[in-house]
């Protein structure tokens, strides 16, 4: 496929596909917009978990064993903080702290999040453009029967245990797309928009909540395609299946596709081979479907999924 590619991504699952895309798309033609909803202020630092996961993954610094954070990590800071009675529920490794500290310094010096991210990615030698979806704060709030929870308190501190009844994206109404995301959405050379296999509610919906993004996605000339984050009725990673069930959805790849189609124009959908039986029902609803092995365990499988989703987009363009 020739032309520029825009990917919308959350953290771990999205970063896997982003790395695959980076193997097959010229780096200058690949823009990856990261979910802002996980971001929060902690210990005086601005923490951007999904931006960081993408940054570490595409720089080759990610801890593939643990699945998050930086490889070769040590935890002296957290141990010392605990000795002092500090807040230790959110782990920050010693090497990881450097990224958060430098980002926070740049933001306090007047840089936008886009500018700080570009500088940090440049220092780490990352070719594709990793960009925040917005430079304004957008924070996911999880609604539960016992009241609202800031996302990281729900996700990390409480380990996704509370029942979910809905979501709010604080700050979204006042936000606007980051310059790089706005430019990509308006680019006449855009060949495809790829929605990575990320949680639809907490990774992709915060991006769609930014005014103008959903409308732009429905208006782009390029095909909009998504990779299912649900395989065989279970989430590949994280609380997607739990959230689907608690919100009254069927726990299936089809439910995710329908959720996206209620928000934006979705042209194509990549199903895992385990869900091939769902293809006919989705095609009957007007969605173009492709089937491939979508569980990404190494660089070869990440690259194969990237090729499969780009092939689907190319089929739609033709």
What would you say this structure looks like, in words?
- The protein has 318 residues and is α/β, with parallel strands linked by helices.
- The protein contains 13 helices and 14 strands.
- The protein has a seven-stranded parallel sheet with strand order 5-2-1-9-10-13-14, with helices on both faces. A three-stranded antiparallel sheet has the order 7-6-8.
- Helix 12 (279-284) links the parallel strand 13 (268-272) and strand 14 (288-292).
- Helix 1 packs parallel to helix 2 (49-59) and helix 1 (12-24) packs across helix 13 (299-317).
- The longest helix is centred in the C-terminal third of the chain and has 19 residues, at 299-317.
- It is globular and about 60 Å long.
């Amino acid at each position: 496929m020739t032309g520029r590619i825009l990917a919308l991504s959350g953290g771990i699952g999205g970063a896997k596909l982003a790395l695959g895309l980076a193997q097959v798309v010229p780096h200058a033609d690949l823009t990856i917009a990261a979910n802002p909803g996980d971001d929060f202020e902690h210990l005086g630092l601005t923490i951007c978990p999904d931006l960081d996961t993408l940054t570490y993954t595409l720089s080759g610094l990610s801890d593939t064993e643990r699945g998050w954070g930086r490889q070769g990590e040590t935890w002296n800071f957290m141990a010392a903080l605990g000795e002092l009675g500090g807040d230790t529920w959110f782990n920050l490794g010693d090497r990881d702290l450097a990224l958060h500290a430098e980002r926070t310094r740049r933001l306090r010096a007047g840089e936008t999040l886009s500018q700080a991210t570009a500088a940090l990615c440049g220092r780490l030698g990352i070719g594709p453009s990793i960009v925040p979806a917005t430079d304004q704060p957008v924070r996911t709030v999880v609604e539960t029967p016992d009241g609202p929870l800031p996302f990281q308190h729900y996700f990390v501190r409480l380990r996704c245990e509370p029942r979910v009844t809905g979501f709010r994206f604080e700050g979204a109404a006042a936000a606007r797309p980051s310059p790089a995301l706005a430019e990509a959405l308006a680019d006449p050379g855009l060949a495809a928009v790829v929605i990575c296999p990320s949680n639809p509610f907490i990774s992709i919906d915060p991006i769609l909540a930014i005014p103008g993004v959903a409308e732009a996605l429905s208006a782009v000339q390029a095909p909009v395609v998504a990779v299912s984050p649900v395989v065989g009725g279970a989430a590949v990673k994280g609380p997607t299946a739990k959230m689907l069930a608690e919100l009254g959805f069927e726990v299936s790849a089809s439910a995710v596709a329908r959720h996206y189609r209620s928000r934006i124009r979705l042209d194509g959908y990549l199903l895992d081979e385990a869900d091939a039986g769902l293809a006919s029902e989705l095609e009957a609803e007007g969605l173009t479907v492709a089937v491939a092995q979508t569980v990404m365990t190494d660089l070869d499988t990440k690259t194969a999924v990237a090729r499969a989703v780009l092939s689907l987009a190319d089929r739609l363009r033709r």
